[in-house]
């Protein structure tokens, strides 16, 4: 269990994290989501102990093996933090030397992440995806109970993304706790069970993904609308005071049956390319919660 208790981090005039309280259960996969600059990396750095919060606290463990149990944390936060002049093999040997207990063999780790053929190359010559794979190796070879990754799918090819998703599911099934920050929301939906959503340093949600998605749906029927005239349709909806969620690619209309949406759109001379009754996806719920937050009055800090 990881418990964040009123965590706040202030850098000069920027409030990167504001009063964040959340609980992350052991054995869960948690997706840390939020727009650019919302505080995700800062939160991961606080959880891993790389930086101290300005106020509040993070407590980790003591829930699995009784008092005194301190789980190992393995984190990979930045491809830029890798030693660029070293080879992958030399870097992993260094990590193995620092954590001899529980450690996977270097050659085994290189095989596991698909870097065995380039083990002797300097990291500087690696692509971003190869650096991500090396970072993943540096985490798993220490066999931590808690695994933390910042934007792990950044640079991975489709095969790599599927491989990494599989890895997360396998490790979670072993009871390990996993936190990943990501902008790849559709990918996260397939693996994570819990969401922590930040916006402008504030916590908007910390709950099971199923619950998070069902809240939007509870406002009534939802209809997915796609059109070349997305902006015009949204302006018709706004004028008619019909609630909707705007995503970059489509609009979700809430509380109206599909035939009523079609009738309204056609009555204004607009056209549709898709109209489907559906429940909300994680991505749509994400945009809904963010737009509600953007509209909410905010106290200055
Ligand atoms: N070392 C620092 N000094 C000053 N401000 C910082 C520092 N680190 C982060 N910030 C600020 O804190 C806020 C949150 O940044 P953070 O990197 O945590 O966001 P993020 O959600 O990870 O963003 P992204 O999705 O773009 O990676 C930003 O306004 C950022 O400028």
UniProtKB/TrEMBL annotation:
PROSITE patterns, per database record: ABC_TRANSPORTER_1, ABC_TRANSPORTER_2
InterPro entries: AAA+_ATPase (IPR003593), ABC_transporter-like_ATP-bd (IPR003439), ABC_transporter-like_CS (IPR017871), P-loop_NTPase (IPR027417)
MF-aspect GO terms: ATP binding; ATP hydrolysis activity
Coiled coil feature spans: none
Positions of the ABC transporter domain: 2-225
Keywords assigned by UniProt, alphabetized: ATP-binding, Nucleotide-binding, Transport
Endpoints of the signal sequence: none
Superkingdom of origin organism: Bacteria
UniProt keyword Translocase present: no
Record has Transport as a keyword: yes
Family: Belongs to the ABC transporter superfamily.
PANTHER family reported in the protein's UniProt record: ABC TRANSPORTER, ATP-BINDING PROTEIN
Protein known as: ABC-2 type transport system ATP-binding protein
Annotated organism of origin: Falsarthrobacter nasiphocae
């Amino acid at each position: 269990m990881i418990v964040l208790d009123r965590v706040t981090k202030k850098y000069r005039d920027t409030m990167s994290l504001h009063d964040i309280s959340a609980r992350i259960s052991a054995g869960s996969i948690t997706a840390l989501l939020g727009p650019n600059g919302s505080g995700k990396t800062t939160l991961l750095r606080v959880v891993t102990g790389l930086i101290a919060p300005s106020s509040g606290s993070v407590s980790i463990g003591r829930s699995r093996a009784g008092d005194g149990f301190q789980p190992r944390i393995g984190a990979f936060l930045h491809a830029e933090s890798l030693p660029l002049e070293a080879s992958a093999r030399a870097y992993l040997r260094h990590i193995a030397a620092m954590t001899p207990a529980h450690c996977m063999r270097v050659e085994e780790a290189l095989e596991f992440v698909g870097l065995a053929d380039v083990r002797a190359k300097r990291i500087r010559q690696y692509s971003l995806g190869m650096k991500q794979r090396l970072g993943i190796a540096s985490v798993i070879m220490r066999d931590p109970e808690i695994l933390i990754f910042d934007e792990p799918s950044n640079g991975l090819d489709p095969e790599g993304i599927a491989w990494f998703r599989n890895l997360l599911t396998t490790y979670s099934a072993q009871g390990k706790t996993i936190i990943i920050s990501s902008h790849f929301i559709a990918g996260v939906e397939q693996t994570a069970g819990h969401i922590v959503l930040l916006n402008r340093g504030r916590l908007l949600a910390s709950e099971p993904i199923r619950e998070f998605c069902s809240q939007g749906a509870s406002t009534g029927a939802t209809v997915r609308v796609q059109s070349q005239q997305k902006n015009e349709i949204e302006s018709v909806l706004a004028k008619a005071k019909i609630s909707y969620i705007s995503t970059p690619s489509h609009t979700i209309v809430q509380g109206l049956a599909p035939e009523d949406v079609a009738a309204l759109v056609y009555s204004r001379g607009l056209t549709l390319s898709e109209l489907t009754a559906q429940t909300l996806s994680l991505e749509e719920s994400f945009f809904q919660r963010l737009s509600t937050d953007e509209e909410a009055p905010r106290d200055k800090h």
